[in-house]
Amino acid sequence: MKVHHEKHHQAYVNGLNVAEEKFEQALKDKDVISQIALQPALKFNGGGHINHSLFWANLAPKKEGGGEPPNGELLSAIKKEFDSLENFISKFNTLTAAVQGSGWGWLGYNKTTKRVEIVTLPNQDPLTTHVPLLGIDVWEHAYYLQYKNARPDYLKAVWEVVNWKTVAARFENAK
């Protein structure tokens, strides 16, 4: 994860900074064509930064509570939708492992339905349809050094370091 943070996440931050500078200049120049042309770079790099910032807060070493199951209202919401935490994890892993290429698996809060839902997204697309509660990166850069190309093994193991306290705090704020 150190390489993931220092190299990959930093690359998104750097790319976002460059895209924002160019976009700011395009605004000053009233260059609408350039503003439109910069949208993919803003989405990719901005999404990469947002997603990874959420991702790091989702994780904690075991000695700091990583992997301790959720409780309270968050657990109740998960059980309401998936019957149990184990069923949620199983469904999340199945859907997220099936992301073609690179992307993210999310547990999000749908403000309209007032329910927690699993959403998968490609690339670095940020979760904008729900309040992001928990995001798991399934780009190979998230797991290749330890798990090679075995995404399902990574998804099985990541739950041992999920920081459910952070997820629960996001859930409370979302409601």
What is the count of β-strands?
A: 3
**Average of pLDDT:** 89
Count the DSSP helices: 8
Q: Quickly give the structural class.
A: alpha+beta
Strand share of the residues?
5-15%
What is the CATH class of the largest domain?
A: Alpha Beta
Number of domains: 2
Strand order of the largest sheet: 2-1-3
Q: Helix and strand string, N-terminal first?
A: HHHHHEEEHHH
Function: Destroys radicals which are normally produced within the cells and which are toxic to biological systems.
InterPro entries: Fe/Mn_Superoxide_Dismutase, Mn/Fe_SOD, Mn/Fe_SOD_BS, Mn/Fe_SOD_C, Mn/Fe_SOD_N, Mn/Fe_SOD_N_sf, SOD_C_sf
GO molecular function: manganese ion binding; superoxide dismutase activity
EC number: 1.15.1.1
Quick description:
This protein is of the alpha+beta class. It contains eight helices and three strands. The protein is globular, with a radius of gyration of 17 Å.
Description:
- It is built from 8 helices and 3 strands, in the order H-H-H-H-H-E-E-E-H-H-H.
- It folds into 2 domains: 1-58, Fe,Mn superoxide dismutase (SOD) domain (Helix Hairpins); 62-174, 3-Layer(bab) Sandwich (minor pseudopilin epsh fold).
- Helix 1 (2-28) packs antiparallel against helix 3 (39-58) and helix 4 (72-82) crosses helix 5 (85-97).
- With 175 residues, the protein is an alpha+beta fold.
- The protein has a 3-stranded antiparallel beta sheet.
From the structure above, extract its key features.
175 residues, alpha+beta, Helix Hairpins, minor pseudopilin epsh fold, 2 domains, three-stranded antiparallel beta sheet, 8 helices, 3 strands, globular
